[in-house]
Amino acid sequence: MLQEKVSAFLKKKGLDLNNKKIVVGVSGGPDSIALLHYFWNQRQQLQIELIAAHVDHMFRGEESFQDAMFVKDYCRKKAIPFEMERANVPEYMEKSGKSSQTAARDCRYSFYQRTAKKYGAEYIALGHHGDDQVETILMRLTRGSTGSARAGIPFKRPFGDYFIIRPFLCLNRAEIEDYCLKERLNPRRDPSNEKGIYSRNRFRQEVLPFLRKENPQVHEHFQRFSEDLQSDEAYLQELTVHKMNTVMKKKANEEISMDIDAFEAMPMPLQRRGIQLILNYLYKERPASLSASHIESIFSLMKSPHPSGNLDFPGGLHIVRSYRQCHFLFPKEPVQSYRYEIFEPACIKLPNSGSIILEYADCSDGILNNDTLVLDRESVSFPIIIRTREKGDRMTLKGMQGSRKIKDIFIDHKVPLHDRKTWPIVTDAQGRILWVPGLKKSHDDRQQQSCTSYIILKYIKQ
């Protein structure tokens, strides 16, 4: 019965294992030894090559070592290649700061990957079953997981150069135990699976029996729910990527900026996934403490009546709102104030990634935008100075009487707070501000006046 059910499940999933090499992760417990035995029974029909991979996590001393010997002995009798590693998980926990379960999983999966590489296998098969799926989905919903995480355990997923597959997701625990009994497998038992200190065990012992009493086939319904959610999520993710490409204004390894108005015009399901997309892109390793409440705080920040604000996220990520722009960034080394003196044509690379080019010309070419300043070469006192803003900076504006604070110019143009510190200010040798590149020019600009020769300054944004 089990073999027919699993084979039908694999066929439904369109997974062709014929002539493939498969690494099977085997702990010695009922689920994994049943999976290995299932594939061993199918080896001639499918023409598959099996490799058993076992990790001793060194949590239970001699008892866990005997688990390894049990798997080794099974493989010897069935002529299955056996690979084993004793992983010092307690030591890895101390170095990494990870929990026992996460650390053990890291060590285990790393060994599986190395074993697959050694044998040239394409698939890594694991013994997760339908009851594991129910427990995982309920646990993730309880702790507030979002997006595809709510779908639980995927049947197949890429893992480096390989694929992890879980052929037993169509089964419940009772079916596997019955298979072990009929096949006389006599699996090993890990007593930690019964301890109530682990949240999964509490779901297993208290919640799952109630659900199974309501519907003995509950694991099949949860598996169908998982598959539906995964396919829906894949479609919504595709839409989100398309929409977010029109919303994001800046995208770098450690910083993303987006237009709030354009973002809020997106449907709410895409907004939530858009934030997830940004966080997944910026975080190299997603912090375990990041939750749905963090996502909600970003929406609150964007809807706040205040024009600016910020949030501090786990792992050092800052979310900064400045007017109708929202910036996600990891703080870089603070940019020191700068000052460049130009005596001749040159191209100055600025710390904010832009550049200013100084050229000589015989005509002004009728340039009228704020990214270019045209000066009378005969009346300018060198050097031309490019520097950062200083306290009390003011300038006269072209076409206006009096002067205006640079601070107010930044506010008028809604320049983000974190950009103001590095925005270039251009002055003459006497310190008179001639130009705030991209924003305002002084009355020294000669774009529409006749001169014998010109200095042209161009601001190139990156």
From TrEMBL:
<keyword id="KW-0819">tRNA processing</keyword>
<dbReference type="InterPro" id="IPR014729">
    <property type="entry name" value="Rossmann-like_a/b/a_fold"/>
</dbReference>
<keyword id="KW-0547">Nucleotide-binding</keyword>
<dbReference type="GO" id="GO:0005737">
    <property type="term" value="C:cytoplasm"/>
</dbReference>
<dbReference type="GO" id="GO:0006400">
    <property type="term" value="P:tRNA modification"/>
</dbReference>
<dbReference type="Pfam" id="PF09179">
    <property type="entry name" value="TilS"/>
</dbReference>
<keyword id="KW-0436">Ligase</keyword>
<dbReference type="InterPro" id="IPR015262">
    <property type="entry name" value="tRNA_Ile_lys_synt_subst-bd"/>
</dbReference>
<protein>
    <recommendedName>
        <fullName>tRNA(Ile)-lysidine synthase</fullName>
        <ecNumber>6.3.4.19</ecNumber>
    </recommendedName>
</protein>
<dbReference type="InterPro" id="IPR012795">
    <property type="entry name" value="tRNA_Ile_lys_synt_N"/>
</dbReference>
<dbReference type="InterPro" id="IPR012796">
    <property type="entry name" value="Lysidine-tRNA-synth_C"/>
</dbReference>
<comment type="function">
    <text>Ligates lysine onto the cytidine present at position 34 of the AUA codon-specific tRNA(Ile) that contains the anticodon CAU, in an ATP-dependent manner. Cytidine is converted to lysidine, thus changing the amino acid specificity of the tRNA from methionine to isoleucine.</text>
</comment>
<dbReference type="InterPro" id="IPR012094">
    <property type="entry name" value="tRNA_Ile_lys_synt"/>
</dbReference>
<comment type="similarity">
    <text>Belongs to the tRNA(Ile)-lysidine synthase family.</text>
</comment>
<feature type="domain" description="Lysidine-tRNA(Ile) synthetase C-terminal">
    <location>
        <begin position="384"/>
        <end position="457"/>
    </location>
</feature>
<feature type="binding site">
    <location>
        <begin position="27"/>
        <end position="32"/>
    </location>
    <ligand>
        <name>ATP</name>
    </ligand>
</feature>
<dbReference type="Pfam" id="PF01171">
    <property type="entry name" value="ATP_bind_3"/>
</dbReference>
<dbReference type="GO" id="GO:0005524">
    <property type="term" value="F:ATP binding"/>
</dbReference>
<dbReference type="Pfam" id="PF11734">
    <property type="entry name" value="TilS_C"/>
</dbReference>
<dbReference type="GO" id="GO:0032267">
    <property type="term" value="F:tRNA(Ile)-lysidine synthase activity"/>
</dbReference>
<keyword id="KW-0067">ATP-binding</keyword>
<dbReference type="InterPro" id="IPR011063">
    <property type="entry name" value="TilS/TtcA_N"/>
</dbReference>
<keyword id="KW-0963">Cytoplasm</keyword>
